[in-house]
Specification:
Blueprint (H helix, E strand, L loop, with lengths): L4 H15 L12 H17 L2 H28 L1 H5 L5 E4 L5 E7 L4 H17 L2 E7 L5 H17 L1 H13 L6 H10 L4 H7 L3 H17 L6 E4 L2 E4 L4 H14 L1
Length: 253
Amino acid sequence: MIRPLAALLAALVAAAAFALPAGALDLTTMNDAERQAFRAEIRAYLLENPEVIMEAVAVLEQRQAEAQVADDTTLIAANEAAIFDDEHSWVGGNPEGDITLVEFMDYRCGYCRRAAPEVAELLESDGNIRFIVKEFPILGEQSELSARFAIATLQHSGANAYEAIHDALMAFNGEVDEAALRRLGTSLGLETEAIMAAMDSAEVSRVIAENHALARELGISGTPSFVLEDRILRGYLPLEAMRELAAEVRAEG
């Protein structure tokens, strides 16, 4: 991964601080000759000790990570009800679990599809995780159609029907249009025409709008993204990493 320019510049400043006395860092008091000497000293020091740059970057990244965690904790606390108890999202896993995992997902997202069996394995093997799905269509018309059909299914036919269509849509590899949704719904024994009629309802639109608004509040712009208790996990995480984070959350709780 390419490091942000700001991080590298900060690392260089930190390296200079290690190399020179504090008083020498006040550039405003230097004349041209002193400033040139200062720059030469920095260059010489870094050429002789290049490892200090990586040390400074590591310190910076640690501080940024700690600040991000603190910011995320504040964001989650401010939006707790919308995240964990919105009354319109499907709840799976163990509804009485001791920790809650929330996923913002898009049916056309390759990494969401990659994560799906691993999330399922996590829920099955752990047995004590409450799982919430936030429909978050961001990848175009087919994503929007899929999400609307899934939400309408939940509202019309309940949690079991939603789980079936959610899993089917996640595994579906063809083009998503109304004809494909009718075939998929019919194959699962759903009341397809009633669900199709509800897809463009105000209630379905409200759920999607609220999920998008919540994502903006949390600084979530991609899928999959997860909220695990007081942590926001932006992007795909492999199964073992999710297990480790679940263990950390429990240990801290």
